[in-house]
What does this fold into?
Amino acid sequence: MLSRVAENIYWLARYVERAENTARLVRVNSHLVLDTPSGIAPGWEPLVDITGLRSQFEAVEREPNERNVVRFLIGDMHNSGSILSSLAAARENCRTVREVLPRSSWEKLNELFLFAKENIQSGLTKGGRDDFLEGIISGSQHITGLLGSAMYRDEAWHFARIGRNLERADMTTRIIDVRSTDLFPDDMLESRSLDTLQWISVLRSMSGYQIYRRHVAIRVSRTDVLEFLFRDPLFPRSFMHCIDAVDQSIDGLDNTGPALRSIRALKRRLRDTSVGELSQAELHDFIDQLQLGIIDLHAALAEAYFPPAIQLEEAG
Amino acid sequence: MPIQLTEYDPGRFFDEMMAGKNRARPLAKELIGLFRRMNDGELGTRQDAADLAIKEMGITFTVYNENDGMIDRNWPFDIVPRIIDTKEWDVIEAGLKQRVRALNLFIDDLYHDQKIIKDGVFPAEVLAESKNFRAQCVGVKPPLGIWAHICGSDLVRDADGVMYVLEDNLRVPSGVSYMLENRLVTKRVFPELFESYAPLPVDDYPTQLYEMLAALSPRSVKRPTVAVLTPGIYNSAYFEHAYLAMEMGAELVEGRDLFVDTDDCVYMRTVSGLQRVDVIYRRIDDEFIDPEVFREDSALGVPGLMRAWKARKVGLANAPGAGVADDKVVYAFVPEIIRYYLDEEPGIPNVPTYRCMYPEERQYVLDHLEELVIKPANESGGYGMLIGPRSTKAERSTFAGLIKRNPRNYIAQPTLGISTVPTVVGHCLEPRHVDLRPFILSGSDIFVTTGGLTRVALRKGSLVVNSSQGGGSKDTWIVDTGN
It folds into this structure.
């Protein structure tokens, strides 16, 4: 398989996943804001840092209020990480590899991009936001499902799987990070129940609440949730599960040395850290480490498999 | 109400299917009979079905628009096939083979001994002014001496019923994928006609193309690596590049996927490392294929590709420099070229062409400006042309001056009344002008597509068949009528 084609498929999968995850991120924050008493709500500014897009945000928006941040994250074509930009980029990557992918994946992707473009105004209203985000999430899942059920399990499939899972692992850390800023002073009376509410909200945003209750515990606690989201090998959005999938797919390729070394280092770090016991500050640092690990893994993949001529975008 | 053809009037033009109002030619009797039995709505319904099939099959061409960026447009297709009798086709096919054989001998001669110039048949001045002669190719010996492996020649039928060659495209002719897809669509739309007409199949082309290309491989391996080199998704023919690569099981590559190493071999960058490429079907013009040799600013090409080709480490189709025979003035000499190399009379006539460099022909042109189309040799796309019958007196005198000052740069041809075929317009059939582009493959044998791509000018009275300017296409049937 041509290196250029491999790279396009990898980014195609990443961008589709990024659109879905950004939608999830906005949704979890919307619920978080609704669930917390006014005055202590964290607001929207943290999302700008979590997505790693502060400089881009400051270039186009002034006040990090709800309206501006939501517009920046879902509809701003100047923001390369916005939902609309991600879908446009996914579409451009798909265009050149149509022959390698199932025939209808191009059509579905095109449809999803047009849906986003045509409904963006309604998505920017408070009332229309949830429907818009739901449309993005289910449309992305449609494409992911189509690739999963129709692709021949050759290199093309492996690169799609690697791209999707790297992006997902990355966003899982970012969604958890929404909670890792110090939201509530410890002496606050309601702090404890609010805490629980918000962890439920995080689980829900990753379609993990039901699974958590069934397989981990009835009671939602910070320690268990962190363990679950980082290290549960069977939950498909857990960091560990995503990294395992990347590991397996790299194993299906040639010339795997550097990428495998990078991924093994990442797994070791995960295994050796008791994530549930980390303080908020430590958790934030730990997440930074994992994100650096993802960037390193991407660089190893690019070095081994992608064409050299292109300026590669860094993960995140 | 059935479809009426009582008002069908091609005027002074030759119509391929109708001999007169309401009178079908023998080879079109059944087809026209089918239309006569249809009611008003059915014709439109079948056209809609074809349009839907094209959309579903994703048959597109690309246009670039400043506001919307790149758009894939559905391929405009007319459901009424154009029928040609095998008897006539056999003559055309033989004529095309003859023509391409002579053109390849001509190109090879130009890059070696130039005997045709020494023998005074082809003027050295014409070669000196050729835009597509590549000095870098002098002395190169491509396999079998063949330069133009893939040729698309445009044929038109004049009002007198005679089929002429209008031009030969020897650089990167396109359209063959649409010829193949048109047949698939027509099978869906008119299955009943296939039983009675049994048009000869066209789907052999990708296999023939692959075998011709594979034979250019410098290595004798069982399955050489063949790649289609495309300028990329912004090219109007990208659909075709992808289509042909897929049909041949070849790689679709861009310049940046390829790399010429110090061993002069061409490699493509794959996820398993570098892989040798044996043959490249390049769909990029000469000027852009190798920035080391031609345009330095080309980002589409592959540095070192010419080096690899000259060292015979890679097969290239068409060979660089083949375009020298794809030129308006050279065209005027093709009948002489055929006689010179093959000692035969041309099987298909050229459109009569007056070369202003010769005093007698120039005098004729100057005396008949009002009837002729004057074309400069080194312009394309209709620039700098004079269309005599539609010109003003002032324009004619300007052109007379231009011709006298630089006679070598001008040729002239009579205005052609190109033929028509019934075409769906709303719920009716109306005559529209068509041409025909067969594709000719040259390897150890010469292969001609069965028919070719019929392009149709969909606008009333228009002669422009180009898809970017309101042209469409039709399926082309070669049919044994037993007549």
Summary: DSSP finds 14 helices and 24 strands in chain B.
